[in-house]
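Batch manifest, entry 17 of 40.
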Amino acid sequence: MQITGREKHGTKMKIKTFFLICCLALQACPGGNPEDVVAENAVAKRVFPAADEILAKVYDNLYQSPANFYVDERTDTPGSYTVYHVKDASASFELCTNDYYQALDWEAADNDSRLVNGYFVGSLENNRYFEFVRELSNTGDSGNNNEPTSPGFARVFKCDYVNRDNVDRNVRNGDAGDLNVIPPSAAAMQTFTEYMWQFTFFWPATKKVLESFSDETDTRYQHTLLLAFKTNQGTGQCDLIEIVEWVFSVGKNGGQMTKEFIPLYDMRARLNNGVAEKCAD
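Output type: structure tokens
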């Protein structure tokens, strides 16, 4: 996956650094937004993991995210299983309701429309979502192949937790929905960001979370995922490694969350006799 958009990062980072130096030297940045200068300064001061540390994680098949990262409640389920959120008719966003029976109706309709469906087993809820458990029929090439069924866990957000109506979950920047936790907090922002990561798909790259950290300003809480994407470039070629920050934030009075996908830099790398190494520029 080659990330596109505002992404010619090497040039972008050089321009940003030069602009910041000029601003500091002149003690003023005519025509600029002071908040932009603060953000640029923060990027300039960030200390990123060393290349060998990044590559060790990128090429480690067992590594996915840092210690203490969110672990889904269903992770210990034996064998194959499915966790997903019931979505609107266009599959653009996850539905929400505070009404159990509305959630149940949506899930039942969703089950009827799925290629792989199953019979109802039960339900549960927490302060974030309703969950409906079904035993899904396995085909010959999916699920627990030696078992006729595997569990499926379908969830519907509670609107009192988050409302994602009309959010395009496939868009990396912009609206991320309304966080309705009262009062909002850095911890709530972290839980939402890390929870949603498990439902994020970047094809065909290998994706790894290098770091997950919180920050705040006078008016907003934010949570950042420092990500690495590895894209194979073909036989005999070095892989493309792209380093990105994905920043989610919400005002301290709650309400609309935003997301910003910020490519930082890239490098080329490969496995040499089982050892990850950076390719020469």
